[in-house]
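for ur thesis appendix - Putative transcriptional regulator containing an HTH domain fused to a Zn-ribbon. copy paste whatever u need, i formatted it the way the template wanted (i think)
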Amino acid sequence: MTLAVVTDGGQYKYATAVSQRMREADETTRQRLADSLRAEPATPSELATRLDLTPQAVISHVEHVSRSVEGTDERLLVAPPTCRDCGFDDYDDLLNLPSRCPDCKSESIDEPTFTIE
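the 3d part is after this line
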């Protein structure tokens, strides 16, 4: 697949069809993500494995999916990350993968879990 087209002046311009396919690929990924969350709750790592993405990419897509379901009768529900040692779960950003607990400083943190109902 060619990502650029050479014009008469020798300049490179990105092909519109390529950028359209890239947008469609993102939409398809988000649709697959949403369908997966409708089927069962999942963590970013589980979704990353299913969709062949990184956990950070999954979080980015989940943010977009949450906006998409906002205008419908569905809701994106998030179970917050939880410290396995002290049980702390009052994180400021639920769509984040914290590296350690702010209370006890433990690095043993369960990831957030997402689902669409």
